[in-house]
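Cont'd.
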Amino acid sequence: MMASSYNAKEEDGNPSSATVHGGAGTVKNKKPDNTAFKQQRLPAWQPILTAGTVLPAFFVIGLIFIPIGIGLFVTSNNIKEFEACLYSVYSKYSFSSLSTLQIDYTGVDLSSPCFNCSQNYIWNSTTPCTCSVPFSLDQPFESNVFMYYGLSNFYQNHRRYVKSRDDSQLNGDLSSLKNPSKECEPYRTSENKPIAPCGAIANSLFNDTLDLYYIDPNGSRTAIPLVKKGIAWWTDKHVKFRNPAGNNLTVVFQGTSKPVNWRKPVYELDPSDSDNNGFINEDFIVWMRTAALPTFRKLYRIIQKKPNNMSPTLPRGQYILDVTYNYPVRSFEGRKRMILSTISWMGGKNPFLGIAYITVGSVCFFLGIVLLIIHHKYGNRNNNADIPN
Amino acid sequence: MAREKTTETEVVKGSKEAKRQRKKTKKEYKTRTVHSNLLYYRTKAEDNPNRHYADNKIKTTKYTLLSFLPKNLFEQFHRFANVYFVFIALLNFVPVCNAFQPELALAPVVFILSVTAIKDLWEDYRRHRSDKEINHMDCLVYSRPERQYLERFWKEVRVGDFIRLRCNEILPADVLLLSSSDPDRLVHIETATLDGETNLKQRQVVRSFLDLDCEFDPSKYRSVIECEKPNNDLARFRGYITHSSGRRDGLYKDNLLLRGCTIRNTEECVGIVIYAGHETKAMLNNNGPRYKRSKLERQMNVDVGWCVIILLVMCLFSAIGHGLWMYQYGEKRPVFDVLSPEGTHMSPVLSAIYLFLTMIIVFQVLIPISLFVSIEIVKICQVYFIHQDLELYDEETDSHLQCRALNITEDLGQMQYIFSDKTGTLTENKMVFRRCTVAGVEYSHDANARRLAMYQDVVDSEEEDCPSHGGTLPRRDSVTSHQSAAKVVLRSQSTKSHRRTGSRAEAKRASILSKHTAFSSPMEKDITPDPQLLDKVNDGGSQMDFKRFHSQSLSQMPSELTDIIDFFIALTICNTVVVSSPNQPRHKVRMRFELKSPVKTIEDFIKRFTPSRLTSSSNNSSSSSLNRSSNRGCSHLLTSPSAESTLTKLDEERHPRGPGGLEQASSPVPAPPTLGTCYDGKPGSQEEVELRYEAESPDEAALVYAARAYKCSLVGRLPDQVTVEFPHLGRLSFELLHTLGFDSNRKRMSVVVRHPLTDQITVYTKGADSVIMDLITPPPTDSKGKRHRRILYKTQNYLNRYAADGLRTLCIAKKVMSKEEYAVWLRRHLEAETAIQGREDLLFESALRLETNLHLLGATGIEDRLQDGVPETIASLRKAGLQIWVLTGDKQETAINIAYACKLLDPEEEIITLNADSQDATAVLLEESLHYIQVKFLCSSSDPSRAFQNDYASVYSFSPPASSSSSQPFLVHRLGLVIDGRTLAYALDSSLEEKFLAVARSCRSVLCCRSTPLQKSMVVKLVRNKLKVMTLAIGDGANDVSMIQVADVGVGISGQEGMQAVMASDFAMPRFRNLQKLLLVHGHWCYSRLANMILYFFYKNAMFVALIFWYQFHCGFSGSAMIDQWYLIFFNLMFSAFPQLITGTLDKDVSSETLQELPQLYMNGQNSEEYKPYMFWVNMIDAFYQSLVCFFIPYFAYVDSDVDLFTWGTPITTLALLTILTHLGIETKTWTWLNWLSISFSVCLFFTVALCYNASCPSCFSPSSPYWTMQTLLGEPLFYLLCVLTPVAALMPRYFYRACQGSLFPSPVQVGRQLDQLPSDIRRNILSLSRVQAGSPLDLRPPFLSSLSFAGPFPKGCSHGVATSQNQYSFTKRPPDRLDPSLSGGVAGGLTEKKRCLDEEDQYTLASTETDTLPYTKEGPRAGTGGGSGAGTRGVTGAGSGVRLGAGDGETWTGPDDPPAPLTQDCQDVTLLDSSDLSLSSWITSTPLLGTPWLTTPLLTMPQSESIQLTLPPAGRDQSAAYRRNCDDPTPHRPPEHRPILPTEGADHAHNQATPTCPKEHSSLQTTLL
C-alpha cells in the first residue's frame, strides 16, 4: 500500500497511451462485470421464519420422532439385563426385566459375602480372597449373554490418568518397550527397569476374576463357559495392540518390570493362550480403552448361545458367582458390579433414547400447535399479504 | 588538453568547496547541497558530496528475505490476541498444566500467524514487483565519458545527475529544471498522479539558465545548489543556486519537476536531480492505508472481554472443583489419581492452581482465535463486492468506488451523522456562467438560463429523448454576424450530442473528450450571451477601435462601455487559464508576439517604463511578432541574464517592427497568417480551431468561456503576456507584469498588466464580493460619486440576489496605477520576491498593498450545478434517520439556497439562523434557541399518544448512547440550523459547545457556512466525541481533508478538485448519489452480515467450550476433554469455518431494491439492532442450553455403558458440529448454492478428516489414540439416532423463537424481507402507497401491516403543526444604537455601515429582532397578531407564513431598478411587507433548478451577513448584560412599543387559525406565559 502513487502511475500508463493513440475503444474499462455473483444477485432461497412457514416443520418432526421413540423404547425394553447385585446375602434375587437395582459385590455391608475381602486395601496382596455370591434368574436368557464388570466412582477419565500410557509400547515397539514414553511417569520405571506396560492405566488393571456357576436343581455346580476372546475391538486386538516381536514372550519382556500393582507380569496374563497373552490380552485391551464416565462397565466375558441347541443360554434357576476379590475400590468409595445382558441392534439396554425421541417429538408437536394458534391469531395479515400473490 | 586541465583543477576546487559545503551542511542541518555528479566521475566515490543522498532505487517493500520472519512476527504480535494465543500455546509446554500435545497446540497459532504472514508476503512481493518495474524504467542520463545522454534505469539515477526528458515521459526523480526546448523556457507537467489534477502546470527553467540559448551542456555546469532537506510538501520548494561566478539565484517550486509527473507539451528538457528515490516529494507523500477500528469491532472487543471473564470464571470454577474433588479423597490416593511425574503427592491447592492454567488452555477456544482472521477475510470479501457493484460505477469517469480502508465496511451501516461539503460534493463543481452585472446593470442571461434548463430537461427526460432539442435553443437575434449565427447552430448541435447523461456511447464520448481538457463539458462552455450586453460589447469594441484609430483618448468614452470592456478584459486575463487546441490538447497554442518576461528586476522596470520606451512600445506591444530563436546567440551562459536579455529584447523590438505594427494589429481582419499561426501548424480560422481552456479551478474556466461567448476570447497565455481577441479591436496583447495568484486568505487574485490601448498599468482583481467590496474606493460625494454609489449599491443588490439564487458570486474590479505608484510598489514587491526568508508572507503583504482603492467593474454569478440525484439521495438518507450537516466555505446565502435546492432544508421547516460576532452574543443566541426549541416542542410532548399518531418523520430521534451525558432522548425536530463561520468559532468554544450541540442535535439539518477546514474538522470531532455517534464526512477537496480524517468514516468524492480528499478518505466514490447505495445497501449488508457473524462466532465457541465444561463435572474437574484434541483445535479453524464465511460475505437480509426503497431499514444498523449488548448474552445462554443438550443426550444415551472416552466424545463433536451448522442455517437469510455447498463441505470435511485421522496411525495420537473410532461409530445405529435427535432438540427453542418473532413482532427488516418476497408489481404498489402517505414516510408498512408496531427507534415524542409551518426564525441581535445610524444613511459607520445601509433588503429580518427580548424571535405578522398578549407570540407555532415570506421576496427583489426609498423609518416597518407583492416573486420560478422550492422558500434569511450579525459593540457591555437579563426572565415579555404592527394581521390570523394542529397546547402555553 505504500506504493499507492505508484499504482496510480501504473494506471496512468493507460490514459496517456490512449491520448497518444487517440483510440477510444482501446481504453480498458474498469466497469465491473455484470454477473450474478459479483452483483450479489445469485439465485437464492430466502426462507422467512414465521409461524406459518415454520409450523409444518414442527409437525413433521413431531410425527416422525414419536414413532421412532416408541420403536426405540420397545426395542430397549426387550433387552434383558440385570445387574447381579449381591449386597444382601439373605435375599433371593429374582429380577424382572425392568428392574435395575443398584447393588454390587463390592462388599460394603457387613452382610455381604465379600465384606471380608473388601477390607483388603492392598493392591498386590499375594493371598487371593474369594467370595461366592448366589443369585437366581426368574427368566432365561435366550441369546448370547454379555457379562460385564461395572465400576462406579472410578475416574478412568481423569486427565492425567488418560494420558498415562504409551501407545507405541503397546503397539509392540521395541524401543518404547525398553524406554517408555515420559507420559507414563511415575509408572514408567520400577527398580530401574522399564515397566511394561507402563503408565497408570495399565497399572490399575482390573484384576478380579469372575466365574459363573449354574446350580442344578440337584445342587451340583456347573461352570458356565465364559468366552474371553472377542470382547475387545477387532482393530485394537489386531492393529493397535501388538506384542513385541519375538516368539517367546518371556524372552521378549526380559529386562522389563511388571507394573507395580500387578501380581504377575504381562506375559503371564493368559498363559493358556498365546494369542491372548502379553499386550494383546483382551482383558487388558478392554481395560486400556478408558471409560468416558466415572460409572462404567466393561465387557468381561461372553456366554455364547450353544449352536443348534434350543435350550436357553442361561436357563432359569440358581447361580453362583465366584469372585476372586483382588481389586480394592473401597478406598475411593468405588463400587464393583457384575452385569449380565443381552444386546440388540442399538446396543445395550438404555430406554433413554426412546424416551428422548418421544419427548422431543411431543414438544415439537405441541410447539407446532402453539404456532398454529399464533398463525391463526396473528398471522392473518401475513396471509393477506400473501393473498395478492 | 588545456580544457581537461582546467576541468580537473576545477574538480579539485569543486571538491574542496564540496568539503566546505559538507561541513556547512553538517553545521546547518537544514539544507541539502547538490553538485553535479559529472565533476566527480573520476574521483573516488567517497569524494562525491552527493553520495550521502538516497539513490533513486525505490524499495517500498517492508521486508527482505532475512528480515521477513522476525519483522513480520514482531508486527503480528502487536495484536494482543496473537500474544494471548501464543501465550496459551506456550503454556502447553509446561508439563504440569499442559492439556494438549504442545506441538499440536501451537498449530492454530502458527496457522493464523502464517496465514497473515503469507498475506503480508504476497503483498510485499507485489510491491517488490512493482518496485522492480519502476526501478527498471528507462531514462536518459548524461554520461561524462560518452558526452551524451545514455539510457539508464531509473534506479541508477543519482542525485546530481543530469537527466534529459522528452514529451510524455514520466519524471524519475525530483528534478531541478535547467533547460527546456520550449522557447519560453517552460515545461508543462501533468500532476495527475500526485494530486489528481489533470490540468497542465507550468514549470520554469531556473532563472539563471533562462536565457541560455544554445543547448544546455551539462559538462559545463559548475553551480552548486543548496535547497531544503527532503520534505513532503508538494507545494513548496526553496533554495538557491550558486554559480561558479558567485552569483546566487533563488529556486522556487516553479523550478522543480516532481517525480511521477508527466512531461507534456514540451519536446525536451534537461534538469539536475535534486531528490531521488525515497526522498522525492512524491514518495514522501505516500502513506500507507489507515487503520481504523469500527464501532462493531469496538463492541465486539467488549464482548471478547466478557468472554475472557466467562473463561476465567469457568476456569476458576473448575479449579475449585478440582481442589474439592482432590480434598474429598484425603490422604487415600485413588488409583486413578496419578501422582506427579516425580511420584510425589500434590496438594489439592497446588493441583487446583495447576488445573486453572490447564483449563485456560482447554477452554481457549472460547476466545475465538479465528474470529479475527475470519472477520478480516469477510471484510475483504465485502470490499470486493462493493468494488464490483455496477451501481457504484461511474461510466463518465470510468471509476468505481474504492475502499481504501479495508476494515470499516460495517461502519457504513451504522452512520448517524453525515457531514458533507457542498461544492463538488453536493454540486458538480462544474461551474456554469449564469448571469452578470456590469456597472450596475444586470444582464440576466435569460437565454442562457433556458439553455441550462434544457440540459436539465435532457437529464430529466432522458428516456424520452426528443430529437428536436436543438430547435428549442434560443437564437440571438441581435447578433448580425453570420459567423456567430453559425456558431449558435453549431453549438446547438454540439449540445445535442454531448448531453451529459445521454446514451452510453455519448456519455463515453463525452468523457473521453473531457479527459483531454479539464472542466469543459459543453454545458460549461457554450454560453449563450445576453443580447443587450453583447450589443454593448460590440459597441464598446467598435468605439474603442475608432478612438484608437483616431488616436483619441479612451477616457472620453462612456464609462459604462469602458467598464464593460474592462470587465471582459478582467474575465479573460485575470486567471491562470492555459490555452490549448483541441486537436492536440496537450499542446498549447502559441501566439508569441514578443518576448517579455514579467518584471523581475528594478532595471527591467526602468528599462521598460522609461518614457521614451513607453512611446515606442505603445506601438509595438500589441502585435509585434518575432521569432526569437532565429537570432539567439549562445553567449549568455551564466551572465547576468535579465539585464542583458532586456536589452536584447529592446533591440529586437525596435528593429524588425516599425510603427506599421499597429495598423496591422488593428485591422478588422484579425487573423493574418503570421499572427494566427498555431503551434500545431494549422493556420485555420479561429472558428474551426476551437480553443480549449485549462484552468486550475472550474470557475476560472467558466468565466473565460463566458467572456468568449462575448467574443472576448483568450487566445494565448504566456508567462509574460496574454493575448485576447476582441470584437472590432482584434487581438490585443496584454503585457503581463505580475500575477498575484489566488489564495484563500485574501480570497482574490489580481493581475497587473499594461493595457495595450491606454498603456496604463492596470490591476485587475477578481474575488469574493465581501472582500472586494471592502477594497472599493469610496465614491466621492459629487455627482460622479453619486453614480458610483448607485452602481455600488446596485451591484451589491445583485450580488445578494445571485447569492440567494445559489450562485457563486465574484466581483471584478480594476485599478489604474500611475508609474510612480507602481514603481514604489514594485520595489517592495521585488524585495519580497527575492527574499529567502518569509517570502510567502512578504508576497502576501505585497499583494495586500497592491489591491487597494479598486474600481468596481461588475460581478458575476456562476452556477454550481447540483449533482444528479442529490436531493433524492439526501431525502432518502434522511429517511434513513441520518442527520445531514453541510459544512461549507461558501457564503451563507449561497449555502442556504443550495441547501434548499438539494432538499436539505425543507421549505416547511423552520430555520434558526445564528449569526453573532462575539462570544457573549453567541451564548445568548444559543440559549435563546434552546429555550425556543424546548418551549416550542414541549407542548407536544405532553400528549404523546396523539403525537405518536402523527408522522414519525417529523420527530424521530436517535437513542443516545448510554454513555452520553444526557440520558433523555433528544428529539429531532423539523428545524434547520444555519450558522456562519464566525459564530461557529464561538460556538465551538468549550464553554458553549454543549449548548451548541444541544441546539444542533435537535435540528434536522444543520448548515455551517463560511467554515474553515479546521472548523469543519472541529465540528465533526465535537459531534463525534460529545454525542458519541457515528459520523461520516464526505468531501472532495483539500479543504475537506481534515474533516474526512476526523470522522469515523471519511468519504472522498473523486471529482474534479484533485485527489487529496480521496487520498485521505476511507472510501472514494465518483458521485454523491453513490452514497445512497453505499450506506443504505452495502452499509446495511456489511453491518448485518458482520454483526451476525460475530454473534454467531461467540455462540459457536461458547457452545463448543461449554461441552467440555459440563464434562468437567464427570471427570473430577481434571481438565480432561472427551473431544479429541485434534477436533478441539481444528474445529474452529476448519470444520466450522467456511459456512460462516460464506454467510458473512453473501447473506442478504433484505434485497438491495427494498433497502433503497425503504431507507428506514437503515435504522436497523444505526441502532445496532443486529448486535445489541444483550444479544451477546442471549447467544451465550442459547449456547449453554444447546451445549447442555448436545452433552447430555449422548451422556444419557451412553451412561453406564462400556463406551470409552473418545468413542463417546466423537459423537458429541459430530453433534456439536451439526448443531452449529444448523444454527447457522436458521440464521442464514439467503440460501444460495454457495451456502449449501459450504455447509455440506464442512460436514464432509469433518467426516473425511475424522475417518482419515482415525485410520492413519494406530499408535501415534496419544493420548486419545482414536484408532478406528469413527469407523466403528459409523457402524452403530445409535450414532445416527443421536445425530438426528440432538440438533433438533438443541435448536428447537431458537427456531420456535424465530418463528414467533417473525409472526408476532417482526422487526422492520423482517417486514422488508416479507416485502421482498412479494412479486415486484405488488411490492411497487405497496411501496408507492406508503410513499403517498405524505408525512409518514416511516409508515412503510402496507395497510395490512400497519397495526404491527415498528419496533422502537421512535420515541414518544411529538410534533404537530410544525410540519406545515414555514416560519423563519432569525436569531439575530443588533443593538439599536448601531443599527439606526446605518439606516439613516449616516457616514458615521464608515463604508461598511454605508453599504449596509444600501442593501436595504436585509433589514427586514433583523429589524424585528432589534430589541427583541424574547428568547427567540418570531418574525412576522403572528408576532403582532396578539397585540400585547403573549398569546400572540406563542400562537404562531403551527402557522404557515409562506405567503408573507413570498411577499418578502417580492418586494425585495423587485426593486433592483428603482431602489426603495431610503429607510429612515423604523426598521420594523420594513418587515411588514405587503403580501400583495406575492406575485412579484413568481419570477423566481423561472429559474429552472430552483423552481419549485422557491415558491415557498423563505428568502428572508438572506440578508447580508454583516448586517445580521449580532454586533455587540465593545462599549455596549451594559447592553448585552441587560439583554441577557431579559433572557433570564422566566416569563419573557416583549415591550409593546417594539412590536411590529401588521397590516395583514387579520388575514394571517385566519390563516393561523386554519393550520394549527395543537391548539390546546398553545392555549395552555399561553396561560403560562401570561
